[in-house]
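Quick question, first post here. What does this chain look like in 3D?
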Amino acid sequence: MAGLYDELLVILHGIWNRRWMALAVAWGVCMLGWLAVALIPNSYESKARVYVNTQSLLEDKVGITQVQSQQDLDRLRQTLASAENLEKVVRGTDLSQGISGPRDMAAKISALRENISIMAQADPSMIDISAVSADSSLSDGANARIAQQVVQKMIDIFQEANLTSDRTETKQSLAFLDQQIAQRGKQLAAAEQRRAEFEQRFIGLLPGAGTIGQRMDAARQEISNIDSQLVQAQSALTAMNGQLAGTPQTLPGVGASGGPSALAQAQADLASMRSRGWTADHPDVIAMQRQVDALRKQGGGAAGAGGTPNPAYLSVKSMQTERAATVQALGARKAQLQADLNVMTSRQTNEPGIAAEQEKLARDYDVLKAQYDKLLSDREEIRLRGEVKTETGAVQFRVLAPPSAPSAPVAPNRPVLLIGVLVLGIGAGVGVAFAIGQLKGTFPTAARLERAAGIPVIGSISQTFSAGQAVIERQRLKWFAGASGGLAAVCLLLIAIEFIQRGMA
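> Answer (accepted):
Ran it through. Tokens below.
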């Protein structure tokens, strides 16, 4: 530990002996460093905060959600930094001074893009707009004024974009959709014409629409349903036939003492049915008419000839007639469907390309029809949204904090840099003095000489000063202290000048 302490004393003694060299290096480094700091232009920043309201009850009703409005907000925030808008900023501020051509304008726009910032806060409705001006050819006051002008112009462009972007976008979107709808309409009409011509040549066998395969499937499904209905109708007809066979046609017990004839009774029943509004096509009316005709052929059917007609028989007979007509109609429909199915099957077998062509025509038509309907729906939706945004305002905002007028530069921090240069200069001087002391082959102590020479050192003589030399040495110490204090004083003076300039700006 004692050896380390001795080494430290030796190093300090060597630096002190070369103090004038260290001080000269410190002055040189500080002067160069302070000059470099002085050449750094001041950067003035202006900030503004804007509150953006993207909520609208009417927009929610028509399907414009908060997410969609937020996307509009992001789009506006991004377009603010476009080259077109930045050119408006340059032309609307003092930045336009000194522009002589497109090259100067491009350079101004490029520099401005790096010096503006549009940031969203934690609350996406809050947007901070800031601009920095650091043109070395301008004064501090001019840079501060330009920074404020740039932020104000950005806010103006934001307002303008909010008022015009939605209308322009809606107009462009509607024009594009109208063009697409007209094009799809022509294609759809052509596809419909081709399908109609094909159907006139090959189809028309079944009611409805669809491909040959779809119609054949529909026919098979309908035949299957008719088979089920036919089985039920035949069962009901069989039951009616059995019930009719067990029901007598006449009822005994009414003699010739004045009972009405069977023909008169049947005519009375027929008149009663017609009085209730039953038409001639009603099954009961048809059955009763047949009974009246049969009695007339039999000669009137007097009541004394064997009894009166049985009402139950007549009712069962009409129901049996109705069931028979149903069975006959279902059989005829099944026969027609089967014939149509056989014709389509035959055509598919003889001309297999017909089904493929018909499938292709139907597929093309369905695709075009779906696209056409989707375009119409999109056009109506965009038109409605455009009207809502135009009337209610898609993005409404207000300026919470207007563009600030900067009174002090945000960069560089010259006081810190000046002090840093002072520390660096002192360190450089001390380092140079130490390095020179290490390079020169001197022996500050007897012990070091003894280690270097390898022989014992008898003793050492301390340096002594005469009275005149002591006065000279004290004078040199005063000069050194004054030069060192002057270095610190220059640093403090530069810091004071910096604060004065900030106040004047």
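The chain has 15 helices and six strands.
The two ends are 57 Å apart (CA to CA).
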